Structures are given as C-alpha cells and as structure tokens.
Amino acid sequence: MKFKLLGKSGLRVSELCLGTMTFGEEWGTGSNKEESRKIYEAYRAAGGNFVDTANRYTEGTSEKYLGEFMASEREKIVLATKYTLYTQKGDINDGGNHRKNMMQSLEQSLKRLQTDYLDVFYVHAWDSITPIEEVMRGLDDLVRQGKVLYVGVSDTPAWVVSRANMMAELRAWSAFIGLQIEYSLVERTVERELLPMAKELGMGVLAWSPLGAGVLTGKYLKDLGSDPRRMKPDSNRLVTRNQTIAQVVVEVSKELNCSPSQVALAWLRAQSNSIIPIIGARNLSQLEDNMKCLNCHLSTNHLAKLNEISRIDLGFPTEFLERDIVKDLIFGGKRGLLEV
Question: For the whole prediction, is pTM greater than 0.70?
C-alpha cells in the first residue's frame, strides 16, 4: 500500500483508510471481537496505517476493540476518531459541537482507545448552533495541549468549513486538514461545493460509504433478475437510478475481471489524488476484496462510461458560469487565448 499526505500537512497516511464502524455487534450488523481483530490485522499486514472510528460507533465498542488491537503498536497507527454524537441519551449537553461536549467526548475516547493522544480529531457533524469560533478555538486548545495532533471535519456544509478554516488561518489556530464526506457513484452531489472547496483549501478528502451502502456491490440486483426497472422508485437507496448505475458497475467488473466493489472504489480513487476511501467490512473476505481495488485499473473508456451513467447536474452557479456566452462576457471574447 502506498501513502499520501493528509491535506496541507506532513502527516503520512495510507491510500486506503480502515473504517471500524462494524467493530462490535451492538447495532446488529457488525463483527464480533475475533472477526474484528482479523480485519484489523489483515489491514495492517497489507501496509495500512490509517484507522478511523468515532465515539458513537457500536456504543463505544469500536474504540474499545481498537484500544486493545493497537496496544503494542500505537505509535505506528494514524488514529482518527470523532465527537459530536451523544453517548448518554437524555443529557442535553452530551452531544453537539460545543466545548463541553468536545472535552468530555475526547477524554472518554482516550480512555476507550487506551491512548493519551489522537492523531486526527474530527467534528462528526455540524450542529448549526455552536459558534464557529468556539469550535475552532476549542480544537486548537486540544492541539496545544498535545492531546490532538490534527483536526478534521465531517458532514458539514462547505460554507461552514470555509469560514472555519479562514478564521483559523487569520487567528493562527489549527485548521481542518481532513474532510469526511459521503462520496460514491450513487452520491456525487458533493461535487457541487464540497469537493471544489476541499481542493481550494488543500484538504484531504475521506470518502465514507464508497460502495453506496452496498448498492454498488451489485448484490441487490440478484433479486431483480438484473433488471433495475423492477425496483420501486421510492425504495430509499435502491431507486431505479442507483440500480442502473450498479448494473453498469457489474458490467465493467466483468470486463476487467475485478469485483464490483473494486470497480466502485477504483472509480473513486481516480477522481482525485486527495481522495482516500474509507473501507469498512463485516468480515475478513470483504476487506480483502476491497483492498484489491488497488490493482483494479479503469481505462479511459470505463471511466467515461461510469461518469456518464452517474452524472449529476452541478446546478447554479457552476453550470451558469460554464456557459460559453457567460465566459465570453467575462473575458471579452478572448477566453480561449488565456492560459491558466
């Protein structure tokens, strides 16, 4: 496995990140401790060093398992966890982006993870009411205390992240170096604002649910006789459009002798060098299959085919500004002569 720098930092992380939301059986869909350990060890054996969790995953079991698995090699792991979501339902301050929850969540995570610092600490989701300066100053305090080395943000509007990083830059606080977003062939709306923002600000992008909650594996096509038109259009993620995309992914996978999962992950990695898929698995075989995406190479024709079937409208103002007549007005009819 190769490595990348995470955003505008010197932190070296593997090109695939291990997601551990499946570590633990509390939510009914995860892995027991033995299987979780096998997944972790296989990822490490493949050269991976970037591990992602959160205080809320499987009611804290994910962090507890990782604390045990990493005990003998903590310094070799780039460990990321998140705060925002509650762990004790019914307590108004046990949840949110504010400083109180930030501090108490961090201390609880450190105990479960059996470590005294985090490599990356994420805001898990924007609560829309905590002042941005409170969040950024609080995170910077944690960095100055040595409990956190870098900070990141997940599931937050582009305008909030942009304002937060500009505020951090002007006040010499720690800025977000990593952005977690849902991104896959069936969820490309992040291309409208979030991805252009990440590129401009030099942020590393961590893509969660890169297989579209399993849709892109093609497993749901089996019950449809490989005919996506038989799926009811209001079946949540299993809408006709998504199933049509999954069908093309399966077709490309057969041409390349790769699995559909490998094709979906290879497409994601081809979008930008800054994108790192977060791969999760319920068992060892799933992880091993996903990691083989590193050996799945899509041709220009395959990429074009996948891009076209999953294309979205970028909307205003992007599409407006791309019109020839608008470019003509902005550049005095000489846009084609300007090298940028």
Answer: yes
